[in-house]
Amino acid sequence: MISYLITDQKYYGNTKQSIRETLLKVAEKHKIDYACLRDKNAKDYEDLAETFIAVCNDLDTKPILHTFWQQTIILGAYGVHFSTKDFENIPLAKERNIFTLASAHSLKEANKALFLGADIVTISPIFYTPDKNEPLGLEKLKEITDKIPHKCIALGGILESSQIDMCKKAGAIGYASIRYFLI
Q: Are strands 34-37 and 62-66 parallel, antiparallel or unpaired?
């Protein structure tokens, strides 16, 4: 299964040093296939992204930037992750051959993102996550993966390896989490 770490300043900090230290600490316990720098409040996102990308490359992890598809090209990140409000940028990123992930919270959103060119969609939230919508649950994840096989990563509230196994059984090709990797 694909493992996808997503940063959050609450848990990973938003300085070059905190990002570096936290990613290196996580890598001691987990193999990370993709990592996304998600920090909407960074004072200098590009500066933070440069450090993030360098650490990811050292760890043989594919660095993904959140929303900033143009910086993905400039800074040499592997890809970009779009939220639902930024779907209109998916075709622009794909025109430049950028690997693209997109957030989806329903089959309709997932289909729209894939139609626009997204390579993979995250389906969320699967489990309870503080400050997020009601969890979709494993049954809804399975409904979506049955209709969109080989394209869905489960996201939201994943804190234990047993949850990862359940998501795999529901058809997800991977899992994404903020907190799981810190445990």
A: parallel
**Residue 34 DSSP one-character state:** E
pLDDT 10s digits, 15-70: 999 999 999 999 999 999 999 999 877 788 999 999 999 999 999 999 999 999 99
User: What is d(CA 64, CA 170) in angstroms, rounded to the nearest whole number?
Assistant: 25
Domain harbouring 124, CATH code: 3.20.20.70
**Listed residue (79, 29, 28, 70) closest to 52, CA to CA:** 79
Return the H-helix or E-strand segment holding 81. Answer: strand 79-82
Enclosing domain of residue 162: 2-182
Terminal alpha carbon distance of the chain: 19
What DSSP string runs through 61-75? -EEEEES-HHHHHHH
Number of domains in the chain: 1
In this structure, what are the phi and psi dihedrals at residue 17, rounded to the nearest 5 degrees?
Answer: -65, -45
Q: What Cα–Cα distance (Å) separates residue 181 from each residue in 7, 11, 53, 158, 165?
A: 10, 10, 18, 10, 15
pTM as predicted: 0.96
Residues pairing with 181 in the sheet: none
